[in-house]
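Quick start: read one record
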Amino acid sequence: MTSGTSRVAIAGLGPIGSKLAKALDDGIEGLELAAVSAQNIDKHRPWLDKLGKKPATLPIEALADASDIVVECAPSRLVRSIVAPVVIRGKTAVVLSVGALLENDDLIALARKNGGQIVVPTGALIGLDAMTAAAVGTIHSVRMTTRKPVAGLLGAPYLLEHKIEIDDIKEPLKIFSGTAREAAKGFPANLNVAVALSLAGIGPDRTMVEIWADPMVTRNTHRIEVDSDSARFSMMIENIPSENPKTGLITALSVIACLRKLHAPLRIGT
């Protein structure tokens, strides 16, 4: 590692983690891929062995010591075990499963106490900068409506708990209406975007969410409406799903963009 270079570790090598690893190997200014962790690392050996510089393959608990920045690309249940060791050491954790922060909000206090930082990339969300700016003033209301292809919602805990069958629906079906906190709990693999929106704005208990299963759409669609004392604005984004239908392709690109900002001579956006 050269002077001024930060070591990056990736926890989870699904569609997002693998794309990020390859981008780091291709080169991101001021960063190098130091280590990776995955539940079945042997599954990823063929492409890992083709990287220009092979990262160390480590268990999750060892990533914090092997790096300066750890990017969480894992199931939400693992967020605490990934993030806590990082922020305790005063380092940076980039968190994609942001919904898990609502159940582990003491991690924020832990980061503050130890000089660490938790970074949430923009991900599939448009207008996060506008939201954070509006939150400096007073935000009156935030509403998000999400429409997803059926395949991207199958298996969600909320559907199983309420015995909602969507496999064979022929028309759009509203399957949830409630707060961002409730949405994150019921759809942990789908609604990280709602939690990121809520944390940037008026919180998970005042940010309202509707979720529709829509057999007519092929993209994950989010429409956001915000009313504040500084601006009234609405936004819509249609994200192309990645190999994992629950996750948009733009999410991985957002993490890459976030990491590029860390050492960029010109940084755009708050």
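The domain at 128-246 is CATH 3.30.360.10 (Dihydrodipicolinate Reductase; domain 2).
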